[in-house]
């Protein structure tokens, strides 16, 4: 169904057709707003200054838009020959007044008490109750005079009930909502749809990979249309627990899970056209819409037509997307600060990959394009009372710009789509503060980059963690049966539908982040941050370039997030997970006590659980590059702002100068790359 947006918390929201655009190209922006003609401006967010990077044309007056909620299925049966028969299997997930089948002739409903009910023209026939979380078989046989519904219930056999007509021709059949998809949809799995009349039999079985159209296996009738964004690769009625990979037994996964709060990619008309100058400076920009005292800024990236810098900064946009529009119900997560983006998400029933659907199942799919109301320069994460994600990464880019460093910017979406081609020509890849969600193409691109002599600066924590799959319609994450603290997957549903590959953590896929970066996620807490204490390896002559100008044994600085450089989510070395032997331990923060918990404590050897700490490391690669890692989401937030300098800034300045000697002199006796 379509719902009009509630703008009580934000006067305007919107999305770009793409997160990034190349200099000289155009980009459309799609908005919903209380103001028809707000004031428009463009800012270079990474330099915090007004910019003429592009010409902006408003294409039409803005208005309040609608968004689709829920998923449903449609069949155009056409002219039927009586008697006709429609059969399918259903697994119900929650009790509410919902339409199971909607036609022009009649409707099959589930009542709030869980009973099946046939309705037509003010009359109804009530059938048996449908149990939750058990597969049942529904069969409807109809003529112009009556419809008979038969239900095969577990351990109970067949129950039948009927409704007298007369009925018009069925025509279009909607499964999961009424025949106009105008009411909240059903929360259920559906499988093995079959229709038959005198002209023949048709079947529609779901593949495990997402699709918007499923052909009739007989070839006689139309395709089954899939609306919304239901979950594929879910266990069906044939699943018996012997196979957990849908690629090995597709018939065990020939089902789809419909949710009343599924949200497909948005389809709003274009509101503005941005024509980016051919000589535009690469970086992060913001389109700001203003209405009186209200203003909202929407970030986008301008990419270089060809590598123009030695360093490329990777905005972790998959992490942004995973957290975007998080509902954060206060009953479960007490708020330490207010944020209008989360309020907007609550007001409109939007969900993130950290939320549950209305039926209790976890959200595994985040559609795009879609407004990300929590991805803003002024975003505050209520759980920690400070900025998280994009504001920290923007803080780092502003630091680089003030120091005169030329840094190109790309997004996770760019790297996933283009692979190594997005990194070719750059000496070093710098990550953002929380690069948590990585796809297989991203992994492959980074490995190629390192094998070619490139370097990596992992400037965050909890990185390279969740196995993610991406398409043009969104990203998918399966949490597995151990899940997160917000939800876990159902048995048998740990494989992503886009590829069929196993979901969960990359370490479960045989690619622990430790082998790549030297460290891996170990703990988390929202209470405080700590300084690092330098370890003996940091004083070696070969690393003098990195610590040149650092005066203390402790690396400390006030930070935007939790007040220091080490904290929030932290990483450490691990022999169990394969930290390379040549990794040098440069500094350690901790132990973290009050308010911190082990991230995956059960996976660590008892010998490694003596202290919850964050590690800063560096190793030289065989191809001539380096891998530097800080092990903290807070690190970039501790960079100095527009005034002054601190040890975090000194180290980062030295790191930039190592790759780009034009920014500052390299350390004595050390050649810059």
Task: Describe this structure as you would to a colleague.
Mean pLDDT is 94; it is low at 665-673. The chain has three domains: 2-68 and 266-296, Immunoglobulin-like (Sandwich); 78-258, Sandwich (Jelly Rolls); 308-324 and 375-465 and 505-659, Rossmann fold (3-Layer(aba) Sandwich). Helix content is 10%, strand content 33%. A nine-stranded mixed beta sheet has the order 29-27-30-32-42-41-39-36-37, sandwiched between helices. Strands 14-13-12-11-18-9-22-21 form an eight-stranded antiparallel beta sheet, with no helix packed on it. The protein is mostly beta strands and 673 residues long. This is N,N-dimethylformamidase beta subunit-like C-terminal domain-containing protein. Residues 233-640 form the N,N-dimethylformamidase beta subunit-like C-terminal domain.
List the SSEs and their pairings.
Blueprint: E1 2-4, E2 12-16, E3 20-22, E4 26-33, E5 39-44, E6 49-50, E7 54-58, E8 66-68, E9 72-76, E10 84-92, E11 98-102, E12 107-110, E13 115-120, E14 123-129, E15 135-142, E16 146-153, E17 157-164, E18 172-175, E19 188-197, E20 200-204, E21 213-214, E22 224-227, E23 255-258, E24 272-276, E25 283-291, E26 294-303, E27 311-315, H1 317-323, H2 340-348, E28 365-367, H3 390-402, E29 407-411, H4 412-418, E30 428-431, E31 437-439, H5 440-451, E32 455-458, E33 466-471, E34 474-476, H6 513-517, E35 520-530, E36 532-534, H7 544-547, E37 554-555, E38 566-572, E39 584-589, E40 596-598, E41 614-620, E42 626-629, H8 647-659
Parallel strand pairs: 3-26, 27-29, 27-30, 30-32, 31-33, 32-42
Antiparallel strand pairs: 1-8, 2-4, 4-24, 5-6, 5-25, 7-24, 9-18, 9-22, 10-15, 10-19, 11-12, 11-18, 12-13, 13-14, 15-16, 16-17, 19-20, 19-23, 21-22, 25-26, 28-34, 33-34, 35-38, 35-40, 36-37, 36-39, 39-41, 41-42
């Amino acid at each position: 169904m379509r719902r009009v947006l509630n703008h009580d918390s934000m006067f305007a929201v919107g999305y770009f057709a793409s997160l990034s655009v190349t200099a000289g190209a155009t980009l459309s922006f799609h908005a919903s707003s209380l103001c028809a003609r707000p004031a428009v401006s463009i800012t270079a967010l990474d330099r915090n200054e007004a910019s003429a990077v592009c010409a902006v044309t408003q294409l039409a007056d803005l208005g309040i838009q609608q968004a689709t909620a829920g998923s449903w299925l449609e069949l155009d049966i056409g002219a039927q020959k009586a008697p006709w028969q429609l059969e399918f299997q259903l697994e119900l997930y929650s009790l509410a007044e919902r339409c199971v089948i909607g036609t022009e002739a009649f409707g099959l409903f589930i009542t709030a008490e869980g009973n099946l009910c046939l309705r037509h023209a003010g009359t109804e026939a009530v059938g048996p109750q449908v149990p939750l979380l058990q597969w049942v078989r529904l069969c409807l046989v109809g003529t112009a005079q009556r419809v008979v519904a038969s239900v095969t219930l577990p351990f109970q056999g067949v129950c039948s009930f009927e409704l007298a007509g007369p009925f018009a021709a069925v025509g279009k059949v909607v499964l999961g909502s009424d025949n106009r998809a105008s009411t909240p949809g059903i929360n259920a799995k559906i499988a093995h749809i079959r229709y038959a009349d005198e002209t023949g039999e048709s079947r529609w079985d779901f593949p495990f990979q997402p699709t918007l159209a499923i052909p009739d296996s007989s070839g006689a009738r139309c395709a089954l249309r899939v609306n919304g964004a239901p979950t594929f690769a879910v266990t069906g009625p044939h699943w018996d627990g012997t196979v957990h990979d849908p690629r090995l037994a597709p018939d065990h996964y020939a089902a789809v899970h419909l949710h009343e709060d599924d949200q497909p990619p948005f389809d709003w008309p274009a509101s503005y056209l941005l024509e980016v100058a051919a000589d535009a400076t690469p970086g992060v920009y913001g389109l700001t819409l203003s209405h009186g005292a209200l203003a909202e800024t929407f970030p986008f990236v301008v990419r270089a037509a060809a590598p123009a810098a030695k360093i490329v900064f990777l905005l972790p946009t998959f992490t942004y997307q995973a957290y975007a529009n998080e509902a954060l119900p206060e009953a479960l997560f007490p708020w330490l600060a207010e944020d209008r983006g989360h309020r907007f998400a609550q007001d409109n029933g939007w969900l993130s990959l950290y939320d549950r659907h209305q039926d209790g199942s976890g959200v595994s799919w985040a559609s795009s394009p879609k407004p990300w109301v929590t991805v803003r320069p002024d975003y505050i994460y209520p759980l920690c009372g400070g900025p998280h994600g994009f504001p920290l990464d923007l803080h780092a880019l502003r630091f680089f710009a003030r120091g005169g460093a030329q840094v190109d910017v790309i997004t996770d979406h760019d790297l996933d789509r283009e692979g190594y081609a997005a990194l070719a020509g750059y000496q070093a890849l710098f990550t953002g503060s929380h690069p948590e969600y990585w796809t297989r193409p991203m992994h492959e691109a980074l490995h190629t980059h390192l094998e070619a002599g490139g370097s990596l600066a992992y400037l965050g924590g909890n990185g390279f963690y969740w196995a993610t799959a991406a398409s043009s319609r969104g990203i998918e994450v399966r949490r597995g049966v151990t899940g997160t603290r917000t939800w876990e997957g159902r048995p048998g549903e740990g494989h992503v539908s886009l590829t069929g590959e196993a979901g969960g953590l990359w370490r479960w896929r045989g690619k622990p982040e430790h082998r790549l970066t030297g460290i891996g996620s170990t703990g988390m807490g929202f209470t405080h941050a700590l300084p690092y204490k330098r370890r003996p390896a940091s004083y070696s002559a070969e690393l003098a370039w990195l610590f040149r100008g650092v005066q203390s044994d402790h690396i400390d600085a006030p930070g935007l997030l939790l007040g220091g450089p080490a904290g929030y989510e932290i990483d450490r070395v691990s022999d169990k997970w394969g930290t390379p032997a040549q990794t040098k331990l440069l500094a350690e923060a901790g132990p973290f006590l009050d308010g911190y918990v082990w991230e995956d404590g059960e996976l660590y050897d008892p010998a490694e659980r003596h202290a919850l700490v964050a590690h800063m490391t560096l190793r030289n690669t065989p191809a001539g590059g380096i891998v530097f890692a800080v092990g903290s989401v807070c690190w970039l937030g501790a960079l100095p702002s527009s005034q002054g300098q601190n040890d975090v800034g000194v180290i980062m300045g030295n790191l930039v100068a190592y790759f780009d000697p034009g920014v500052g002199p390299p350390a004595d006796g050390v050649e810059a790359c």
